[in-house]
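We close this part of the discussion by returning to an individual protein. Part of our work consisted of pairing the sequence of a single chain with a tokenised description of its backbone. No coordinates are needed to read the tokens, only the vocabulary itself. The amino acid sequence and the backbone structure tokens for this protein are reproduced below:
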Amino acid sequence: MTPLSRRGIAAVLGVAIGVLPVVTPSAMAADPTPVPAPLVDLGDDTASPSASPSASPTSSLPSSLSENSTPSNSALSPASDVLGGSQLGKRGAVADLSAGAAKLPKVKARTWLIADATTGEVLAAKNPHKARRPASTLKTLTALTLLPQLEPDATWTGTARAQNTYGSKVGIRKGREYTIDELFAGLLLPSGNDAAIALAQAHSTVSTTVAEMNQVALDLQAYNTTARNPSGLDAKGQFSTAYDLALIGRAAIARDDFLTYAGAKSAEFPNPRTPKKNGKEGKPITIYNQNDLVMKNYRGAIGVKTGYTSQAGRTFIGAAQRGNTTLIVSLMGIREPSDDAARKLLNWGFKNRGQIVPIGELVPPLSTMEPTVTEETVVPAVPTPVATTVRGSSRQEIVAEPELSSLSPTSWGWLTVFTIALVLALVSLIRRIVTRKQRRALT
């Protein structure tokens, strides 16, 4: 090949390579997902998870802002990524009393939260994102998951697994027939662990139900709640928080069917005793609600659920409605009667509602939120015809050519392939021409 031919090929390659696009794949932005709330570990709770997400750095509360703290102090600057508001990441009891609200009552519980169930405003809280075992308050999530999927009049036949579960029971017997309505009453009034198994089996399987419970929790943004069983019995990895229980309880009391069960003082349930020789069962037994706010006629009480296990201690979700105001409380690690602790917070909330400055919010379920359109998901507009006048011709519609900077990564890829193919074709053509010239020269 002559030097001239080589220079010609180099020139062609240089021109072709010069038009090759520089392909820089755009960074794929992560889907916008809510940031889970931190699990604030105070080091005083052996029931907390051994490994939990580290809390965002928070300032220590001054001694003057302990049990009856006012978060307006500028020295407090908790992290801004706390679910429901940065003030919910502070340690100790937090409330904004700047508008004239009375001091918080002394509540003997490790963690708690009180909120307006209608507006979602958090009125006060104490370590609401600290993880603890939920005990039977988890049955609220069980009911919230299964109520939309089971017909009250449908029937289910008792199994050995339901009958032989341990802890509190309503009295299910293998081979007996029960309505779904009876099972929900057995779940929410006497807190029957056997009723929790029964409802899960009536739906599908226990494992499937637990998986769906966790999906419901995620939709509620109860990110620190993990269900391992439908009853709330202590289990490895099963935890929740006062904030999450308030989210779950708020969603539950929005359902009329849940309120019918949770607000009832008593109900009738098939007699758990062995049938008589003639095959007839005894008279139904009366089962009672364990929620003393309901049983002791606390004004406006509408539920929600009690709980107790050896590892969790006392847990509680309660709600009451007065006029147009509905308040919800959730407490964990209670060291006094559950209804007493709940009553103190509810009394404070109702009495001071007009003077309480909210310190956060109960976030809405993801399924009720309007989807947001991010920059990465915007579909580029199709070029529209631009009316132009060409000299010497009539008015025409000329489509504007898209700019190279607006091409998608796929378009860049195809353009690259086409350019490389063009270069190879040119190189091949030049080689043929050069070869022919050399043959002619030899002949």
Notes: The chain is about 30% helix and 15% strand. The longest strand covers residues 313-322. The chain has two domains: 3-27+379-442, 114-368.
